User: Which sequence fits this backbone?
């Protein structure tokens, strides 16, 4: 797929910026805090309806403006798609496809697919389980838009169940309305089991791809594994046991849940163990090795999305390229060639292998304005 | 605002803006429109507002909106006394009435079970519902509640509560998940009523 045009109105520090993408690679160069990541964030929003930097729409709207608008024209194999997302400081959103408002967020997802890779992604290795769950969910939403709906339903049940447990706790009454608790348990287990199954299925498909990339980049010396560790322990080969097992584990933890007034069982506590040669990647190795791991994960993500949707997704590289050594830059370049439209941000072009500039268009970003930059022929 | 509008106008705009779905621009348009109308018409509007507020209360039987102690539906002689349709609020009664497919009576819960909002079974009109359900004349209770998370819990909760008394069914939703009964078109709702099934 190819993002042809993007129009940002009152979005972050952009007042009114229209961009036409004329090359498979677009490099956004500029000093810190000029709006490079903001532009990538706009693409991320069209892709997932989420931003990894904020959960409040208020942050996304230009200070002083009531609403922001992101409009895009996308070319897919099946034809051209117009996308529009209007954001308000109140949090109300309007999403439109071909100028027609969609009722459910699910109807907006799946048009623009993108894989994000930023320097923050090292947190995938170093950070807590929440980072890995967010990543997992982000990939799944792109592969199966219905998952966004499922996850939202799960989170809603979780909130309701937690509110119920808080109420029991505040009234000092573990026997308050057990009939109601049973129903919240059932809903949590029903939806939770579906979340777990989808996460499991996706990781199974992703792992061999990530392993192949990892071997290619690390030079065959290291063995990567992505091991799904659902909070609801069960025999992963027996999916029909998952639901009863979920209920049973809630039963076991009932007293602890009452005292802590929160849900202790379910996929909101899942973990993905990343290991290299059987050692947890967090403890293993240098920053360079951790970067190799994240790069392998991202390339696997790119490949899996392409396999599933049948078209190459966009790749968004925020700051990260300059941090990769030339060997890894070349691995990445070989993988994407000109097939994956790539948006790259950087503070300086100097750290790039010259090959990156060959099929690239460069824009300078300054205080929310873009201007085209003619490449110095000695670089290109 | 008071620097833009004279005080009485500012007050009107402010009041209108409190209505759901009315933003500052719409409030201003409505206020200016009201000022242009003849005084008699504005009087009629003001009276209609007050009368509605003062005279419309809840039906003592089904908790639907009513100007009398009981609502028109409960008083209607030609409606099926053996069937009750349970809904979350009065908007759903209105939506179902528009289908003209349903000839039984209603019961309005006044909300859905939602611990986050501090609403439990005790905040709903469940005691009255049990009393009605236990009357021998009742043969079927239809649960017509949005298929949201809260709607699902409420449906199952009431199902368990009423099972000992009578036959309980729930309407089938041809609606998208998360869709609201209120916004469904009549055709969808009518079809959903036909396709109701036993609650297990
Ligand atoms: N809602 C908003 N309204 C106005 N300006 C905003 C808003 N949100 C963010 N900004 C501004 O956007 C700038 C940050 O933009 P961005 O994160 O894109 O920087 P960047 O160019 O990627 O910089 P770096 O190289 O440091 O990553 C900051 O100057 C910030 O004040
Ligand atoms: Mg940045
Ligand atoms: Zn009545």
Assistant:
């Amino acid at each position: 797929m190819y993002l042809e045009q993007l129009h940002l109105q009152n979005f972050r520090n952009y007042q009114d910026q229209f961009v036409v993408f004329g090359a498979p690679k677009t490099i956004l160069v500029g000093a810190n805090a000029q709006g490079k990541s903001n532009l990538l964030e706009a693409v991320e929003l069209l892709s997932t309806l989420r931003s990894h930097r904020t959960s409040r729409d208020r942050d996304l709207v230009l200070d002083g403006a009531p609403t922001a608008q992101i409009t895009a024209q996308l070319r897919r194999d099946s034809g051209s798609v117009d996308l529009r997302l209007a954001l308000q400081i109140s949090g109300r959103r309007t999403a439109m496809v071909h100028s027609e408002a969609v009722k459910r967020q699910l109807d907006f997802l799946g048009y623009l697919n993108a894989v994000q890779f930023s320097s923050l992604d090292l947190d995938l290795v170093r950070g807590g389980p929440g980072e890995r769950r967010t990543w997992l969910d982000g990939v799944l939403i792109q592969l199966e838009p219905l998952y966004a709906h499922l996850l939202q339903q799960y989170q809603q049940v979780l909130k309701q169940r937690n509110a119920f447990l808080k109420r029991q706790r505040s009234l000092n009454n573990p026997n308050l309305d057990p009939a109601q608790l049973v129903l919240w348990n059932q809903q949590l287990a029903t939806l939770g089991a579906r979340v777990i199954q989808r996460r499991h299925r996706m990781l199974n498909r992703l792992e061999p791809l990530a392993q192949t990339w990892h071997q290619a980049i690390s030079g065959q010396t290291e063995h990567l594994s992505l091991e799904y560790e659902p909070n609801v322990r069960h025999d992963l080969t027996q999916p029909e046991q998952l639901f009863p097992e979920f209920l049973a584990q809630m039963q076991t933890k009932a007293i602890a849940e009452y005292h802590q007034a929160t849900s202790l069982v379910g996929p909101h506590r899942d973990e993905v163990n990343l290991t290299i040669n059987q050692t947890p990647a967090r403890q293993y190795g240098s920053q360079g090795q951790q970067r190799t791991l994240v790069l392998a994960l991202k390339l696997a993500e790119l490949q899996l999305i392409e396999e599933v949707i049948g078209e190459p997704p966009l790749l968004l590289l925020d700051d990260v390229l300059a941090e990769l050594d030339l060997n890894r830059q070349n691995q990445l370049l070989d993988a994407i060639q000109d097939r994956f439209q790539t948006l790259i941000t950087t503070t300086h072009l100097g750290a790039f292998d010259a090959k990156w500039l060959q099929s690239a268009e460069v824009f300078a970003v300054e205080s929310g304005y873009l201007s085209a930059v003619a490449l110095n022929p000695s670089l290109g | 605002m008071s620097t833009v509008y004279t005080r009485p106008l500012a007050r009107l705009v402010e009041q209108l803006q409190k209505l759901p779905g009315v933003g500052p621009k719409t409030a201003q348009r409505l206020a200016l429109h009201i000022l242009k109308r003849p005084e008699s018409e504005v009087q009629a509007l003001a009276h209609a507002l007050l009368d509605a507020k003062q005279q419309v209360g809840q039906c003592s039987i089904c908790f639907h909106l009513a100007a009398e102690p009981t609502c028109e539906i409960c008083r209607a002689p030609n409606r099926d006394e053996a069937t009750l349709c349970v809904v979350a609020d009065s908007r759903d009664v209105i939506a179902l009435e528009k289908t003209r497919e349903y000839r039984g009576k209603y019961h309005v819960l006044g909300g859905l079970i939602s611990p986050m909002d501090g609403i439990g079974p005790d905040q709903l009109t469940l005691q009255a519902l049990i009393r009605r359900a236990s009357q021998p004349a009742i043969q079927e209770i239809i649960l017509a509640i949005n298929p949201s998370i809260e709607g699902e819990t409420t449906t199952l909760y009431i199902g368990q509560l009423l099972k000992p008394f009578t036959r309980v069914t729930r309407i089938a939703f041809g609606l998208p998940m998360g869709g609201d009964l209120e916004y469904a078109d009549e055709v969808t709702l009518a079809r959903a009523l036909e396709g109701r099934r036993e609650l297990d």
Remarks:
- The first helix of chain B runs from residue 7 to 17.
- Chain B touches chain A through 18 residues (CB under 8 Å).
- Chain B is about 45% helix and 10% strand.
